Amino acid sequence: DAKTTQPNSMESNEEEPVHLPCNHSTISGTDYIHWYRQLPSQGPEYVIHGLTSNVNNRMASLAIAEDRKSSTLILHRATLRDAAVYYCILRMNRDDKIIFGKGTRLHILP
Amino acid sequence: DTGVSQDPRHKITKRGQNVTFRCDPISEHNRLYWYRQTLGQGPEFLTYFQNEAQLEKSRLLSDRFSAERPKGSFSTLEIQRTEQGDSAMYLCASSLTGAENSPLHFGNGTRLTVT
């Protein structure tokens, strides 16, 4: 499975934007980039995914580098409820199982 | 959409006992996954089903673990002769193949403590 590298933890102030980086230098042409997050005491939840173009949804934005070797999850205005572990995952096709790494633990400071 | 439900939420058992967990997926979802998560780690894939067929099992799934999805709806995960190393959160997820992106929808897990 292609690997991703994320910082172990990050901090951000409430109501400010947060940029969560992910490196995936061994990505193949058919890998989709997915992000999930896991709030305390809950199962993971889907956040966003993309292939080549930047993507926006109601939860976040995904910025993908032109060479696709890195991507950034953007939370436009962090709230305390966004404190979670964020996982960046490569998925070869839409029906593949999801393989999780350790993710980035995001702390939001009030 | 009632989401994925797992039962029980917590289970404490003594080493050597057998335990069984249940997962009810979102009703129209044909894929069902089991994961295990220990403290500070991401979820680890164990196995998945498409309808009633078990399509893949991780090497993490020892002979003491067995999963079933007899009618392609709910699933059970049984651990026989539990060991302390089995203590973890067991997560179930479901998805619909062919759907846009086919995101996995997770339940909130069953936390197992083996004493």
Can you tell me about this structure?
- The complex is a heterodimer of chains A (110) and B (115).
- Chain A is mainly beta and 110 residues long.
- Chain A has no helices and nine strands.
- Chain A has strands at 9-13, 18-23, 32-38, 45-50, 55-56, 61-64, 70-75, 84-91, 104-109.
- A five-stranded mixed sheet of chain A has the order 1-9-8-3-4, with no helix packed on it.
- In chain B, a hairpin with a 6-residue loop joins strand 7 and strand 8.
- By secondary structure, chain B is mainly β.
- Chain B has strands at residues 5-7, 10-13, 19-24, 31-37, 44-50, 53-57, 65-68, 75-79, 88-95, 105-106, 110-114.
- In chain B, the strands form two sheets. In chain B, strands 2, 4, 5, 6, 9, 10 and 11 form a seven-stranded mixed sheet that branches. In chain B, strands 1-3-8-7 form a four-stranded antiparallel sheet, with no helix packed on it.
- Classes of the chains: A mainly beta (110), B mainly beta (115).
- At the A-B interface, strand 3 and strand 4 of A face strand 4, strand 5, strand 9 and strand 10 of B.
Number of beta-strand segments of chain B = 11
Structural class of chain B: mainly beta
Instruction: Identify the most extensive interface between protein chains.
Output: A-B, 21 and 28 residues
Number of strands of chain A: 9
Walk across the major sheet of chain A and give the strand order.
Answer: 1-9-8-3-4
Largest sheet of chain B: 7 strands, mixed
Fraction of residues of chain A in helices? under 10%
Distance between the termini of chain A: 38 Å
How many alpha or pi helices of chain B?
0
The proportion of strand residues of chain A reads: over 45%
Give the CA-based shape of chain B: globular
- Secondary-structure element order of chain A, as H and E? EEEEEEEEE
Rg of chain B: 14 Å
Largest sheet of chain A: 5 strands, mixed
Instruction: Classify the beta-strand content of chain B into a percent band.
Output: over 45%
Summarize model confidence as the mean pLDDT of chain B. Answer: 94
- Rounded to the nearest angstrom, the distance between the terminal CA atoms of chain B is 36 Å
Computed structural class of chain A: mainly beta
Radius of gyration of chain A: 13 Å
- Amount of helix of chain B: under 10%
